[in-house]
Amino acid sequence: MRFRGGAAAVVAAVLVAGLAGCGESGGGGRGDAGAGDAKSSAEPSEPSEPSAKSSSEPSAAASSGSAFTPLPSAELQGRWWSWAAREPAATNPVMDKDGSDCERNQKWDVWFLAGSFGTKERRTCTVPDNVQLAFPLANLMTPDEQDCAVFMEQAKGSAHLDGKALEAQTHPVEGIMVEGVAGNPVTDTDQTLITKGCGLWVQLPPLKAGSHSLKIRGEADDLSVAVDYTLKVEAAQG
Question: pTM score, two decimals?
């Protein structure tokens, strides 16, 4: 994951107030979360095959009968970057070593997962059985549209759920809005950023109750990340 910032991307506080009701669906700024310079939060420490096909077919591990509507590209990227930027370094899910911070700022409709800033991590995360999952293999946030074109030529990644390969969605450049908190390691600012995002993403329907293994690999430029998740899916509390 990578982030590239710029003064032109910072939006005045008055705009933040005006958009407060938009939740996490917007995002913007210049950076990549997890890939090093401005990329995704999950790139591999071992070779990975490019994953560029778009697929919304449910995994075998998906909960039967679960409604699944993938987030539109701009909403997905804006919300994920905002989620990653809404925690300071000490509790940020991108810097999480064991999964203890994976529940930070999660919403009822989509549960986000993170890669890392170039390290290999193993995390255990408890997830409700009624929420979709979404995560990047390699992603970039930048105010320069050309950065995305170059990034997408290099980005590659893979994901395996319970040993089964998952297809990723290729999301070219989109305008996004990103909201963060002071001291976050993603954008390093509490100002709202209007920027662009791109990357390789996976979206999954809710998983069946039980334990699942998820391996995320991704790389771009000089950054490679590998994160292995043990997802403990529990029935949501009524």
Answer: 0.78
Angstrom CA distances, 188 to 2, 107, 152, stand at: 12, 23, 24
| Cα(180)–Cα(211) distance, integer angstroms | 32
Per-residue pLDDT of the chain (238 residues; tens, 9 = 90+): 666 654 333 332 222 222 222 333 333 333 544 433 343 333 333 433 433 444 445 566 876 555 689 999 999 999 999 999 999 999 999 999 999 999 999 999 999 999 999 899 999 999 999 999 999 999 999 999 999 999 999 999 999 999 999 999 999 999 999 999 999 999 999 999 999 999 999 999 999 999 999 999 999 888 898 999 999 999 877 5
Q: Virtual CA dihedral for 159, 102, 138, 226, nearest 10 degrees? A: -60
Q: How many helices (H) and strands (E) in the chain?
A: 3, 12
CB of 105 closer than 8 Å to CB of 221: no
**Contact, 115 vs 41, CB < 8 A?**
yes
Residue 56: enclosing H or E segment and its boundaries? Answer: none
Which among 222, 217, 219, 82 is positioned nearest to 141, based on CA atoms?
A: 82
Exposure string of 143-171, with b = 16+ CB inside 10 Å and e = fewer, is bbeebbeebbeebbbbbebeeeebebbbb
